[in-house]
Amino acid sequence: MRTNLSPTNRPAGRASTWRYTLQGVASLLWVVQAWWLAGALAALLAYAQGAAQDVTTGEQARAALVAAPWAELWYAAGVVVLAGVLRAALEYAGARATYGWARAQLTALRQAFAARLRATSPLDARRPSSGQLASAWVEQAEAVVPWLARYRAAQWRVMVVAPVVLVCVAMHTWVAALLLALAAPLIPLFMALVGWRAQAISERQMLVLGHLHGHLLERLRGLPTLRALHAVDSAAARLTQLGETVARQTMRVLRVAMLSSAVLELFSALGVALVAVYVGFHLLGQLPFGAWGERMSLHQGLFVLMLAPSFFEPLRELSAVWHDRANGLAAQRTLAHLLQGLTPLVQADEADDADQATGAGDMPPAQGLGADEAQALEGQAPSVALCGVMPTMQTQAEPSTQAAPVQEPAAMSAVNAAQATRQPWHIDIPAGAHVALTGPSGSGKSTLLALVAGLVQPQQGQVGIGGVPLHSGTVARLRRAIGWLGQPPHFLAGSLERNLYLGRDIPASPVQARAALRDAGLAALADRMAEVRLGEGGSGISGGEALRLALARLAVAESTRLLLLDEPTAHLDAATAAQVRASVARLAQGKTLLVATHDPELAASLPYELNLDAQGQAQWLRRPAQPEALPAEMPQGGQEAQP
Questions:
Q1: pLDDT tens digits, residue range 133-147?
Q2: pTM above 0.90, yes or no
Q3: Among the CATH numbers 3.40.50.300, 3.40.630.10, 3.10.180.10, 3.40.980.10, which is that of 382-395+413-481+561-643?
Q4: 105, 248, 445, 568: which has the highest count of C-beta atoms within 10 A?
């Protein structure tokens, strides 16, 4: 089965049929047990009735007890016990296999969700909050397992076991079969009416629950700010209100689930009662019709009575897990729709991923971006070119009736410059240039960095790094030469070493790691690297140390040849900003550097300055440091960066 995020009511294919078949065969073994039990009871009752008429003394009673059909009874008991053992074994094997398969499908669904999440730009302001994503990925996705393991198994038994039982009943009496057949359609009809309502309520519940998780995570992250503003009480009141909303939605789901169970119990009890009344009066001779030929025997009548409840048993099981279907469909629909409409990033294809892992593969030649060699793949500082590039980042989420997601702090407002960009960008940055991107907030500085890093796909035009076009076939290998520092940098709860490497496979020794920390101005941390522990969000170190640690992340990767820094000195005091500027200067030696900044001192310290105005128009400002090294003019057409 191919797993995707599309909402569907048929997630189980041929791969799961044999698992459901085991449980179905286990249920059908009750037919065998019922037949032998009915036969043994009929024989015992018939013998008891005859013996009661002949026995008058105790000695006759003992003789009648010895003459009882014990052999037949023991044989029937053996068959019933063996069938019961086999039934339990098949039920256990089928349930275990189905549960394992359902967990595997959940893993595949989560992997597909994670792959789609990785394919979206982390800078999109419409991206759901971390709390919503975590709630959907961890908690809500779990509803898929009961849906596949219980509901789908019960649904299969309804489609297979119930018809077989109905046929077995019809072989002995068509009246009882007709009564069961008339009662059966009413159950799925009313359950479907109730189920539609249950699914809508479940979807609403998951939406409210995800919003609660996102809201809680944001308030926990901003707890110091809430305390400083004396807003803890109001935040707690809002969380209480959201919690009460979740509780009300949960009770609505439970109320609908109880209603569906009541509907099933009503009609199943009615059907079993009508069959019991008919069989009883038929055996008494009051209703002599309905059997094939003469009246049914006691054996047949008991057999039909035992099968009547088992006809409704699959429907009863389906009703008990009916809410699992609603929850499973709601979870799958939530996972499918949560990431719709987000801005995609340039994603590596499978062939490029394989080449990246093995180090094999040849780069395609540059097309329309110059004929220079691919410096990014040769360990040299690469050039950067944007030819007719128009970003695709949108500023606002599309109108929706759902609750608005809580925005992430990392969703920077500057990425919304796509709306302000009226003309395509034609920008050529020479290899090894150190460029300051300046301009007002919202002019497109962060968007330009995101385009170069492949974190945003351009609506039109092409981005090139070192003469190599940036697309799905080259992005994985080009990114090995790119170092990105966004705002604010993210830190994990753990050791300093963990936050330095971030799980990357970097061939750096502890000596190189300490050297990277010292170059970033963190000599004190480098000496006790194994002892320093960071909390969530980088707690335990100052803001300036956090920025320099983020710079050390770039320095520890020797393959980095292109540095993209977004506001590295923002929100720092003068002394700390000077240290960060010195660290940037050391780190950028022999590399191409692009820095988006509002810091005039940092901009003045770089030989190039590219200014983006409020309309997103790019213009080169000549710098006294290297006036002769300004990029050559681009060909006419569109908007180019002018000196």
A1: 777 787 778 888 888
A2: no
A3: 3.40.50.300
A4: 445
